[in-house]
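All the exercises in this workshop are built on plain-text protein records. Instead of coordinates, the fold is spelled out as a row of discrete tokens. Once this layout is familiar, the rest of the handout is easier to follow. The record below serves as our worked example for the rest of this section.
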Amino acid sequence: MWKTILRRILIMIPEIIILSIIVFLLAKAMPGDPFTGSINPRAGVAQIHHLMEVNGLYDPWYQQYWNWVVHLFHGNLGESYQYNEPVTRIIGQRAVNTLWLSLFTVVLTYLIALPMGIYAGRHEGKLPDTVIRFYTYVTYCIPFFVILVLGIWIFGYVLGWFPTTGSVSPTANGTFATIGSRFYHMLLPGILGALFGTVNIVQYLRSEVVDAKSSDYVRTARAKGVPINDIYRHHIFRNSLLPIAAFAGYSITGLLNGAIFTESVFSYPGMGLLFVNSISYRDYTVITALVLLFGILNIFGTLLSDIILSIVDPRIRIE
């Protein structure tokens, strides 16, 4: 399996190169420039053209791309036009917040989805199954940003149970106070993201449990007198996890990409909010780095899903 993983990683190299070229060209094709509005409003057109020339934005695209690649291999992604700081430092600061929120949402999603899917499949056609299916249908029909807006309005403003902006309270002093404040700020966006993310997992898992109940190995286990709880725990649950495991890698990387909506609504200082602000200010260096990072994460998510699937089911080997 390790040889296969290494071969897949080598295949990813040309994919990443093509992705970097496309991302670089799309960022440069955006209208406007990163200097208008960010300097003295009284500055004339000549000064803006001078800044564009000094920063090499008038050079041919292939020369700009080559310079960017050379700096990339030296660990330098350029300097942000908006923040006047290295891009690596800015993304590094924001990546921590996005990573913690994404991990918390993933864990919460599976803690909610797995019991619901198994319970719905086990009680097919009964009231619990009907309630869970109604929940998945309603959640699936409502756009994610609507759920976020409703959640922040009800639980943030009306009830006042959770903070609505930021990642850490400015009054938090000390390590434990900072950790507690960070967790408190992640609760509402994490719960809303998990409730939205459970829909597909619950539906897939319920369908697999329903199909597994009528399979030959389950009938054989029942004929041998195996307790029903052991059948669900050792047979049905393990085999029903196969499609869920196949999408596990995509769900993790998808949360990082979907952080744009969550962080924008909650003003959460992560990579998603940084990406939106960078587009507004035409911060080409940050835009290129973030889109390339998200694209690489999606590519590795494919490999991660295959690895998880082969671990869950030893009969499957990625080739």
Remarks:
- The mean pLDDT is 76.
- The two ends are 8 Å apart (CA to CA).
- The CA atoms of residues 91 and 100 lie 14 Å apart.
- The domain at 87-282 is CATH 1.10.3720.10 (MetI-like fold).
